[in-house]
Structure formats: C-alpha cells, structure tokens
Design goal:
Sortase, Chain: A; 8-stranded mixed beta barrel; two-stranded antiparallel ribbon; 1 helix; 10 strands
Length: 148
Amino acid sequence: MPVRLEIPAIGVSTQLLRLGLTPSGALATPPAGPHYDRAGWYVGSPAPGAQGPAVIVGHVDSAANGPSVFYRLASLQPGDLALVSRADGTVARFAVDRVLRFPKSSFPTQLVYGDTNIAALRLITCGGPFDQATGHYRDNTIVLAHLL
C-alpha cells in the first residue's frame, strides 16, 4: 500500500490518502479540510509498483488557499522521477514518459485506467483554462510514468 509521494523536480512531498469513487461513480478527490493539499491513491487501481496503472490524484489549487499539491504537475519533463513510498518500507521509482492535457469532456479513460503489461503510474490534476461560470478548470493534466 502506498503511503507517500515525492516528486523532487517540482517540490512535491505528500502523504497519500486512500480514495475511492463518489456516489456518481467518478474518481473521488482529496476532500475539503485539513487533507485538501495531499495527493490520494485510487484504491481501485493497482498499488504502485504492481503491474498496471496506479492512479494518484491531487488538486492544482483552491480559491481559498492558492497553489495545492499538484500545482506544478504540468511542468514535469520526461525522465523526471516520482517516488512512491510503500507501507512495507520499499520505494517504487517511476520515470515520467509524457505530460498530457485533455478536455474533461474527452477524458482518456482507457489511457489512464486501461491494463498495461508493465507497472505504470498515472498522476492526475486539473489544468487548462479556468471556467469562471462553473468554477472549475476545463481540462485535466495527466502524467504517464513507468517503473524503473
């Protein structure tokens, strides 16, 4: 089970929450309150380091408190490292392959959640233009990485 995420290139060091699905079936995000600025591992995805795409999500910012845990996620470059510490004391080391942005209306479900024949990591946050009318970002930033 993953307990911590570190991404040195963008200064991320966060304990990981365990997240499930909302009643509507969407991926839950870290809740408002004291843990808002932590990232969270989606418990319906493989554990980081196991075969398949482990999914970790975090907020980009908030109106009340400004930048959040994944504020600089879109600035990652291929080769940057993401380190996931696990409850057994081991660390899964991932290298970034690509940083992508998709409109929320065209979320790449298969790319994010689809089976892989390797241990993969997916980091997800909001991105793109902010829609004042809805109070939400229009896009998602998605980082694809593989286990070293």
